[in-house]
Amino acid sequence: MSLLLAGLTVLVIGDSHLARKDYLIDTLHEELRNQGAKVYSYGACGTPSGAWMKAVQPPCGSAFHLDDGKTRIRAGEAGTSVPLPELVAKHHPDLIVVVNGDTMAAYKEPVIPKKWIWDQVTTLTNGIKASGAACVWVGPGWGAEGGKYGKTYARSQQMSDYLADIVAPCTYISTLQMAKPGEWGALPGDGQHYTNDGYRAWGSGIAKQILSSDILQQIKH
Amino acid sequence: MKMNLLMLALAAFAPVAFAEVQLYDTGPSEETSYVRFVNATDHAISVVSAKGSIELSDKAAARSSKFFPVKSGVKLSATIQSGAQKVGSEVTGKPWEYITIAILPKGGKQMTTRLVRETPDDFNAMRASLSLVNLDARCSAAMMQGGAKSATILDQVHPLSAQRRLINPVKLLASVSCDAETAKLPVDLGQLQAGKRYSVFLMTVNKSRQAFFVRDGN
């Protein structure tokens, strides 16, 4: 239990890493709950950041996990996402945690689309600013090179460095610093998503970073 | 029974269970370019394209349009008009390229167009991006200075080109000069905002050099 996190309401939003059972929607969610926070987690698979400002039907489904409830997975129309302003009005978060990077890194393209990423990220950070909540932004992990998304360590590093420059006012949390390349087991033939052990390590790493960052000191209890 | 035993055996050697995610794109579905028009003549002009028209005056920031997003790789055609004078312009943008179409005088009331292209990669939420666009063909090296100590922000900006750099989001009174001349044109940009982008233009109209700024919107 953390004195700084206990009693706070945390809203976690993200991409595919929060859209399957045993992914961060369970591991990070429980890590934060174990520290005494009320936690509401939502995943919209395959969506870039800007999509969180409107209702979209994610290309590979969605999920939600409301505090002490069970994780629910949705597909097709039933998986239509809830825009951030509605989530904020519903849960009144003190802290918003964004987990998003891989869906914008364009791993198969020779050049990273910085302008497009900028537009996606600032669309969401402007919405977060308007909410008045504090926020942290979690970038992509190493995964494993190759796989169906074409992930590479070099592009993961480039994406992480770039997000660090553009996610303000959110505090950036680098996933790359939590493990060595290839250390977490990426799914074979996938490269971008992890085994359950990998998601446990990632969820634990994010929670530790949130607890050690200055951001919790700035939130009024 | 045999089948059940076989299934148990397979299950024992099965890899760690995981939920596979259906494949999705990790990038934009299409690439965009951005085009703006800047009037460097001594009269108002109209820019007419298949999608509509805009008016650009001959007064400071109203000389410049915003950046219009266009599909990259697709030729954009526009006609610039002023009274009976007309000149055509065609441009094809590369992915994420920002193109400034400058409309310049060409003797009498005639006009010509020149392109200034940049593909910025300096997006930053904590700093401001400031560029100097030299639209003065007779200024071989434009310079911008600013701050209490008149520090050089950008220099050696050649005709019909632009340079850009990140600076802290301060209140900025800049000056623009040309070819080491002592005459400096003041440009008061006010309080710069983090994450925003600005262009300072230098041009000569009717033998008079002028400078102004716009915020790069799109």
Short structural summary:
The complex is a heterodimer of chains A (221) and B (218). Chain A is α/β, with parallel strands linked by helices. Helices cover 33% and strands 15% of the residues of chain A.
Shape of chain B: flat
| CATH classification class of chain A | Alpha Beta
Give, in spatial order, the strands making up the sheet with the most strands of chain A: 4-3-2-1-5-6-7
Tell me about the largest β-sheet of chain A: 7 strands, mixed
Number of domains of chain A: 1
Number of helices of chain A: 6
The chain-level structural class of chain B is mainly beta
Task: Assign the CATH topology of the largest domain in chain B.
Answer: Immunoglobulin-like
- Overall mean pLDDT of chain B stands at 90
The fraction of residues assigned to DSSP E strands of chain B is over 45%
Using only C-alpha atoms, the radius of gyration of chain B works out to: 25 Å
Euclidean distance between termini CA atoms of chain A? 15 Å
- Please report the first level of CATH classification, the CATH class of the largest domain in chain B: Mainly Beta
Order of secondary-structure elements of chain A:
EHEEEHEHEHEHH
Tell me the greatest interface. A-B, 47 and 26 residues
Q: Termini distance of chain B?
A: 69 Å
Main sheet strand line-up of chain B: 4-1-7-8
Number of strands of chain A: 7
Characterize the main sheet of chain B: 4 strands, mixed
CATH topology of chain A: Rossmann fold
